[in-house]
UniProtKB/TrEMBL annotation:
Full protein name: Deoxyribodipyrimidine photo-lyase
Organism: Ferrimonas balearica (strain DSM 9799 / CCM 4581 / KCTC 23876 / PAT)
Protein biosynthesis as UniProt keyword: no
Biological process annotations from GO: nucleobase-containing compound metabolic process; response to light stimulus; response to stress
InterPro entries from the UniProt entry: Crypto/Photolyase_FAD-like_sf, Crypto/Photolyase_N_sf, Cryptochr/Photolyase_FAD-bd, Cryptochrome/DNA_photolyase_1, DNA_photolyase_1_CS_C, DNA_photolyase_N, Rossmann-like_a/b/a_fold
Domain Photolyase/cryptochrome alpha/beta: 1-130
Length: 456
DNA sequence: AGTTACTTGGC
DNA sequence: CCAAGTAAC
């Protein structure tokens, strides 16, 4: 009997580990382990737990249709897993355990422990990535540190995406054991499961892809794919996405979306090669600014009470739904770092706690980009202007008014010029002077560079 | 995956 | 005058 261990790969199609296990010609059984306290240490919030829960239920049904029983355990910490899994292998006569490579340090450490301690072999497979991370190197054999050349190389190397089918149905097996108690009250905007993901993907490709290049930057429009929660839980694989993309006519929209898929690959590639990133180390520590602790400012940013309409709209969308439009994520991140001078790790943690699509690699990569200490980082002097961004991307103020109802009466022109607003007495005045704060950041950083230059 | 000031070349 | 391009931050 072969055991497939599911983690953030909650699907039956294009699942290398499941496919390989089924190839063995023995009955296949499946296991999922909820680890709430361990997840909390990873800044995983209630929404992501809910999202995993809902998708595990959908996975159970999909697996049942293939005759594969899913057992769900609850082990609060990763440390609880090796002994229990070892015992199961002995009791149930498991011949081998199959899973995908994890990217976080704790996930990798657990895999290593299992590989060392289980009474049976642990087979690990690359998840259905678009490229082989270990094979992508620069001409000099080094690692890419800038997105554009990385993406160029990927486009050259990318095999035509061929997603694997779900395994052939087997004679239904009895469940290994009764499930542990684990339940969540699911209150999310996304329907769970592979079928919902496939429908969303198909609709996006047919209806929105051709306009994606133009529409994706307008937070008031439904111009993005909205697939990120499915990617984060592995309900949809990037190969399935790239395959659907390859069935569509090429054009600006298709190229832009492929680029976004490759940004995701780039951040996973970085984490694959630099495991310390998952301990929140900067990729380039020398490029860290001097962060200033300010709990009151952090709280105002988190609550969407900064007095900058587009920033507040984004943070309130995040708090209300667990999702924020990407354009606004970049602005909110830039604001925390460049205007409030608060450590990007606090922003990274807050996003992770709130996001339904929270993904270690993408979230960390995005924050380090914004903070200027990561790969392909925004230079220290580059900061988003909250006013300029709303003028360009929310010209009518529709997005702002949707999430900040106090501003309903304020004309768009005023919103882009900045408050305080006479027509919105309940809305706070801007908490800082944007120009002065970004200038201070730049000056501070320059001085710091001077000091390190003298010191060396 | 930015913003700004300045230049240039068109009308 | 404006649009597009460029350099610098």
């Amino acid at each position: 009997m072969q055991l497939v261990w599911f983690r953030d790969d909650l699907r039956v199609h294009d699942h290398p580990a499941l496919f390989a296990a089924a190839q063995r010609g023995e009955p296949v059984v499946a296991l999922y382990i909820a680890s709430p306290q361990q997840w909390q240490l990873h800044d995983c919030g209630p929404r992501k737990a809910q999202w995993h829960y809902a998708n595990v239920q959908a996975l159970r049904e999909a697996l049942a249709g293939l005759g594969i029983p899913l057992t769900v355990w609850r082990c609060e910490h990763f440390d609880d897993i090796p002994a229990r899994l070892g015992a199961l292998c002995n009791e149930a006569g498991i011949g081998a355990v199959h899973c995908h490579h994890g990217l976080g340090v704790n996930e990798r450490a657990l895999e290593q422990k299992l590989a060392d301690q289980l009474p049976v072999p642990l087979h690990r497979y690359a998840d259905a990535n678009l490229v082989d991370y270990s094979a992508i190197t620069t001409g000099q054999g080094g690692l890419y540190q800038v997105f554009t050349p990385f993406a160029r190389r990927c486009r050259q190397w990318m095999a035509p995406p061929q997603p694997l089918p779900a395994p052939e149905p087997q004679a239904a097996q009895p469940p290994l054991q009764a499930d542990d108690a684990w339940s969540e009250t699911v209150d999310l905007l996304w329907p769970a499961g592979e079928q919902a993901a496939a429908r969303t993907l198909a609709r996006f490709c047919q209806q929105r892809l051709s306009a994606y290049h133009d529409d994706r930057d307008w937070p008031a429009k439904a111009g993005t794919s909205a697939l990120s929660p499915y990617f984060a839980a592995g309900v949809l694989s990037p190969r399935q996405a790239a395959h659907a993309l390859s069935q569509q006519a090429d054009g600006e929209g298709a190229q832009s979306w492929l680029n976004e898929l490759l940004w995701r690959e780039f951040y996973r590639y970085l984490l694959y090669h630099h495991a310390r990133l998952s301990r929140h180390d900067a990729l380039f520590p020398a490029k860290e600014a001097r962060w200033e602790a300010n709990d009151e400012w952090l709280r105002r940013w988190q609550q969407g009470r900064t007095g900058f309409p587009l920033v507040d709209a984004g943070m309130r969308q995040l708090n209300a739904t667990g999702w924020m439009h990407n354009r606004v994520r970049m602005l909110c991140a830039s604001f925390l770092v460049k205007d409030l001078h608060i450590d990007w790790r606090l922003g990274e943690a807050y996003f992770m706690q709130q996001l339904v699509d929270g993904d270690l690699a993408s979230n960390n990569g995005g924050w380090q980009w914004a903070a200027g200490c990561g790969a392909d980082a925004a230079p220290y002097f580059r900061s988003f202007s909250p006013y300029r961004q709303s003028e360009r991307f929310d010209p009518d103020g529709d997005y702002i008014r949707q999430w900040v109802p106090e501003l309903a009466e304020v004309p768009a022109r005023q919103l882009h010029k900045g408050g305080p607003f006479l027509l919105a007495p309940d809305y706070p005045a801007p908490m800082v002077d944007h120009k002065a704060q970004t200038a201070r950041f730049t000056a501070q950083f320059k001085q710091q560079m001077e000091e390190t230059r003298h010191a060396s």
